Amino acid sequence: MTFSSIPLIDWQALHSDTKPEALAQLRDAIFQVGFLYLTNHGLEDLIRRAHAHLPELFDLSDEVKQSVNMIHSPSFVGYTCLGAETTASRTDWREQYDFGSPGMKKWALEDPIWQRLEGESQYPTEHTKDLVEEYIQSSASLARQFVRAVAECLSLPTSTFDSFLGNMDRLKFIKYPPVAPGSQGVGPHKDSTGLFTFLAQDDTGGLQVLNKNGEWIDAPPIPGTLVVNIQQGFEAITGGICTATTHRVVAPISRTRYSIPFFMGVRMDLTLPQLEESAAHIVQRIPASDDRKKRAVDVPSEFLSPLYSCFGEAYLRNRIISHPDVGKKWYPELYERYSK
């Protein structure tokens, strides 16, 4: 079964007398699509304030932007200029600021190298810092409640996924300027940062989701909603039964597009044996057809690669490939290995 549109889930319905019906709708969205619109989530005012700040943020001088350039951060947080990132070996025509959860432990030489990914953010202004920290805190709270609802809709204890939660969530403020038709805003990919993504779109459009027939389905903006999608971490934890869905952004041609994705993190120290053991246990308890469980085994994911000691190592490779200038500066030996 495939899909031709993105389902809408009312967050408040999951906390009302209609909860059984809402859980069934959530289960279908998780199983069949991997994407959904979430409405009545409680972050509407915060999202409006954040979007209102973006034009001002991206209009800052080049000097200010470069002072917080990602090149200064081994944690891959900070400003990335237009055209500096690639996806699927093509240039992404967007500029962006990456941020992470505040209060991360400072990396020490005796720590694993991948732990440098969990570091302090760079902020161009104090107002941006205050807004980002509020946004991350509020989004993280919603995300944790959402994951518990997902567990419930899969007939699992609500605490099933608590032990997989990471230390550091990530947030992006993104600007897609108008470019030539056919340009790539961001290329086809599956989100690999962690468990779920919560995207606040503006009203421009451009997000598309790939269905099982190989058709690109538009995910047009719906005012007041968040677009939520499964990341590869959740795909791996559920043994591939709940699959991450490939998506892309078609670059705008006549007006600027702004977007704010929040990426719910997963534990960086998860090893492949731990993941396989947990996934096998979880898969047994999810009521899904044997055929679905059999097909899930072959779902490719960097989480499931024996090449890496843990997810942190796999994710570090992902960052180095996406941001080669940062990788070359902070991780020269790994850059040489991964860029071959």
TrEMBL record:
It comes from the Eukaryota. Keywords: Iron, Metal-binding, Oxidoreductase. InterPro entries: DIOX_N, IPNS-like_FE2OG_OXY, IPNS-like_sf, Oxoglu/Fe-dep_dioxygenase_dom. Residues 160-266 form the Fe2OG dioxygenase domain. Pfam families: 2OG-FeII_Oxy (PF03171), DIOX_N (PF14226). Coiled coil: none annotated. GO terms for molecular function: metal ion binding; oxidoreductase activity. SUPFAM superfamilies: Clavaminate synthase-like. One of its GO terms (biological process) is small molecule biosynthetic process. The keyword Ribonucleoprotein does not apply. Belongs to the iron/ascorbate-dependent oxidoreductase family. This is Fe2OG dioxygenase domain-containing protein.
